[in-house]
Amino acid sequence: MISIEDAIKAVIETSNTISISITFPIERALNLVLFSDVYSPINMPPFRQSAMDGYALNLHGDLTYSLVGEIKAGDSYQPILKKGEAIRIFTGAAVPDSANAVIMQEKVISKGNTIVVESNPVEEQNIRPIGEQVKNGEIALKKGTKLTSAAIGYLSSLGITEVSVYKKPSIALITTGNELIEAGQPLTYGKIYESNSIMLKTALLNLGFDKVSIHKIEDNFDDTYNELQEVVEKNDMVIITGGISVGDYDFVGKALKKLEIEEIFYKVNQKPGKPLFFGKNDHTLLFALPGNPAAALSCFYIYVYTALQKMTGLKNTLTKVMAISASNFEKKGDRPQFLKAIYNDGTVTILEGQSSAMLQTFAISNALVKMSGDLDQIKINDMVEVLLLPI
């Protein structure tokens, strides 16, 4: 049985970045990762730009200036100011080459065709120089940058309309279990509603992974083997929930062995999620998560999320912070444990209902408290390690 730390390390070392690029319009590239450096095709700003509403001045030794006109944002008007002349200007407007400072309107007294300034500004005050953000030909964003809304807005301001990004992995979700039925069907005795597939699919969609297919396998070896053979061939990642244990009707492990999926590890010293399998073949990563929903989702965020980040050109794991516990908690057993919790501004509350089968508390969680194996309790005001969930 492998430790949590060694399991995460193995996931990072085994997961390879998909070295295929796709060109995307920037408005559709949210949360994708740049495959190559992006160079600016222009200076930004492309002209000397006023940083505020006020007056552009050709400085001289007096506080009084003659007012000779007005420039709005978007005007191409380029007057030549003589010394001692000023022109009304607005934020974002092009500053004439003959002006060497902009003074904010709050520091000016207007008297008809003249203005009086409180004091002469220093040269280039309140003027954004050409190429202040980025110069023509410079790297605007580096390879490996995740395209947030701000990054997309920035590239758009440079006139860029499409980008080369890492191909998103195709992912197959497989659920196993004869006891599972779809929501909306009558709930007959012995059956339960299947939730893992939609839970994991929406988690993937939230992270920006939309090439997801869902497959249901009955509890028999032939169906398990045939379905796995097909999805492993067609996808970059396969995520299975349930069927990985060693019961009489758990066929996933046997099928993976026949498919010659290389086992990287099986079973992690943790709670929940001990019966976790991670393996690969030449082109596909495979996770077999526990069937219990809370355990499956915990393993998804700790391990699958890490693999997906690496596959798409990032190196992120869950964000770790230290926080003050607002709760008491007693742990049974000596395995490290991930506890569903609510984190808020340096404080974390450990929730009731930590069973691996229970999603009720996970539904309101935004974090997991990692409790080491050598601890048997957490007390109020103890400092604890918290993993923030990307939700």
Automatic annotation (TrEMBL):
MoaB/Mog domain residues: 172-310
Matches recorded under Pfam families: MoCF_biosynth, MoeA_C, MoeA_N
Catalyzed reactions: adenylyl-molybdopterin + molybdate = Mo-molybdopterin + AMP + H(+)
EC class (word): transferase
GO BP terms, alphabetized: Mo-molybdopterin cofactor biosynthetic process
Keywords: Magnesium, Metal-binding, Molybdenum, Molybdenum cofactor biosynthesis, Transferase
Enzyme Commission number(s) of this protein: 2.10.1.1
GO MF term (any one): metal ion binding
Keyword Ion transport: no
Pathway: Cofactor biosynthesis; molybdopterin biosynthesis
Cellular component, GO annotation: cytosol
SMART domains: MoCF_biosynth
UniProt cross-references to CDD domains, sorted A to Z: MoeA
PANTHER family referenced in this protein's UniProt entry, alphabetically: GEPHYRIN, MOLYBDOPTERIN BIOSYNTHESIS PROTEIN
NCBIfam families: molyb_syn
Annotated function: Catalyzes the insertion of molybdate into adenylated molybdopterin with the concomitant release of AMP.
Family listed: Belongs to the MoeA family.
Protein name per its UniProtKB record: Molybdopterin molybdenumtransferase
Gene source species: Yeosuana aromativorans
Source taxonomy: Bacteria, Pseudomonadati, Bacteroidota, Flavobacteriia, Flavobacteriales
